[in-house]
UniProtKB/TrEMBL annotation:
<feature type="compositionally biased region" description="Polar residues">
    <location>
        <begin position="342"/>
        <end position="351"/>
    </location>
</feature>
<dbReference type="InterPro" id="IPR019606">
    <property type="entry name" value="GerMN"/>
</dbReference>
<feature type="domain" description="GerMN">
    <location>
        <begin position="90"/>
        <end position="180"/>
    </location>
</feature>
<dbReference type="Pfam" id="PF10646">
    <property type="entry name" value="Germane"/>
</dbReference>
<feature type="region of interest" description="Disordered">
    <location>
        <begin position="331"/>
        <end position="351"/>
    </location>
</feature>
<feature type="region of interest" description="Disordered">
    <location>
        <begin position="24"/>
        <end position="58"/>
    </location>
</feature>
<feature type="compositionally biased region" description="Basic and acidic residues">
    <location>
        <begin position="31"/>
        <end position="42"/>
    </location>
</feature>
<feature type="domain" description="GerMN">
    <location>
        <begin position="242"/>
        <end position="331"/>
    </location>
</feature>
<protein>
    <submittedName>
        <fullName>GerMN domain-containing protein</fullName>
    </submittedName>
</protein>
Length: 351
């Protein structure tokens, strides 16, 4: 599959604890929430989650739900959904992926849920980093061309939770080794390393390549942009994956993809990326600037770099230099004196 789902507009530079893409939804909180534990099923792992006091209105929480857009791309949309009464937040995330389910009135324009209508989530059992999602029989009611999107949407939605690294599928308690319609193999579980929205053009030898996930831009109208994760394969011979990620971002999306990039095609790294303690430092030539007469980096360029590089293992933040100097500002005029971290939420707005 070569198409992917898209996300919402990005307006501000990526900062720790912030979301990118549209406006954030805030809710008033009267008293600090209590910490409670939950279990999705017997034997499931526990997690602390805030809950309101008795008599108070429960607070909405931001969740990344991977939805499908009009072009068939699977993309994170951050939506504020109510804290579940039973605190089964992982199970609830899947319930919000069901067509004609609770997400219906919240869907951004052009987006749709991915799981077949009337699908019930029997439970989600989390143990040792693996989430086993158990669905009802209605889970089988989808078309062949929807199968890969379902696998991706479920996997990427569940792996937003820190305790989930891998996802396995069940129907009414029976483990699936292949998906029920088009027989996509899922026997050993699926993770983010298996990719999303594949861009596999000109890949003749898959065995000698490895996947990287890149973030490009899509547009809903003249004013609204959003980020799309795309998995592309690079040669195993690439010695430095971080360098390869930057090169692929500069290369840009496939011409037929309906995606775009704000990176100047003449952008180059002046040396290998430097890695230390979760931070990667990139030294670019002056073509990284959005304006030739100002030391300003485009918001879209900065966010695409940060989102793409922090998909790599061990990368928590990105520091940008130009000609070895860090005299750079974002479009809001703020100096980028500190490394930029991945936001808590991606694509936070509605269209």
């Amino acid at each position: 599959m070569r198409k992917w789902v898209v996300c919402t507009i990005v307006c501000t530079a990526v900062l720790a604890g912030c979301g990118i893409g549209g406006s954030k939804t805030s809710t008033e909180q009267i008293d600090p929430p209590k910490e409670v534990t939950y279990k999705d099923q017997e034997g499931a792992s526990t997690k602390t989650e805030p809950t309101a006091k008795q008599g108070e209105k429960k607070q909405a929480v931001n969740r990344e739900l991977y939805l499908v857009d009009k072009n068939g791309y699977v993309v994170p949309q951050t939506l504020a959904i109510p804290t579940p009464q039973d605190n089964a937040v992982i199970k609830q995330a899947l319930q919000y992926l069901v067509k004609e389910g609770p997400v219906t009135g919240m869907l951004p324009n052009g987006f749709k849920a991915v799981l077949p209508a009337d699908t019930e989530i029997n439970g989600v059992d989390v143990k040792d980093g693996v989430a086993i999602a158990d669905f009802s029989e209605e889970f089988k009611n989808y078309k062949k061309d929807e199968e890969r999107r379902i696998v991706e949407a479920v996997t990427w939605t569940l792996t937003q939770f820190k305790e989930v690294k891998q996802v396995k599928f069940r129907i009414n308690g029976k483990d699936l080794t292949v998906m029920p319609v088009n027989k996509t193999p899922i026997g050993n579980g699926v993770s983010r390393e298996d990719g999303i929205n594949f861009d596999d053009e000109q890949v003749a030898d898959v065995t000698n390549t490895k996947p990287v996930t890149l973030y490009f831009l899509a547009q809903t109208n003249k004013q609204t942009y959003y980020y799309v994760p795309v998995t592309r394969r690079i040669a195993n011979s690439e010695k430095n994956e971080l360098t390869a990620v930057v090169k692929e971002l500069v290369k840009g999306p496939s011409p037929e993809s309906m995606l775009s990039s704000d990176l100047n095609p003449d952008v180059k790294l002046l040396g290998e990326p430097k890695y230390e303690g979760g931070k990667v430092t990139l030294n670019f030539n002056e073509n990284i600037y959005g304006s030739p007469d100002k030391n300003i980096i485009s918001t879209y360029v900065l966010n695409s770099l940060v989102l793409s590089l922090t998909e790599q293992k061990g990368i928590d933040s990105v520091s940008i230099e130009v000609n070895g100097k860090s005299d750079i500002a974002n479009e809001q005029g703020q100096k980028l004196t500190k490394p930029v971290t991945r936001p808590q939420n991606v694509n936070t707005g509605s269209f």
